């Protein structure tokens, strides 16, 4: 960070997504939520995408929620995780 700007490899993809996810989660601070919020930074998004895939597998095998919502800032070329809705605003 320098003068309010983020620099570095991945600054416009995964780091940007991570910041967006953190800010979204922070907006729920102090609210009475019925479920937990997890913010997970995954690795290898530019190589094989195993980070997102491994976390999705871990979550499904180790967590017991009646329902869950997942937002992945960079979803492994859209090949392994299905999309419910995509909106692009330019």
From TrEMBL:
InterPro entries reported in the protein's UniProt record: Peptidase_M20
Example of a GO MF term: hydrolase activity
Domain of life: Bacteria
Protein name: Uncharacterized protein
């Amino acid at each position: 960070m320098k003068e309010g700007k983020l620099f570095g490899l991945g600054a416009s993809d995964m780091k940007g997504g991570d910041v967006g996810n953190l800010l979204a989660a922070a907006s729920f601070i102090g609210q009475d939520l019925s479920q937990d919020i997890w913010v997970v930074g995954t690795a290898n998004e530019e190589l094989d995408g195993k980070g997102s895939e491994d976390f999705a597998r871990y979550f499904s095998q180790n967590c017991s929620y009646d329902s869950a919502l997942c937002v992945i800032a960079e979803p492994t070329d859209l090949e392994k995780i299905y999309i419910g809705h995509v909106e692009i605003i330019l």
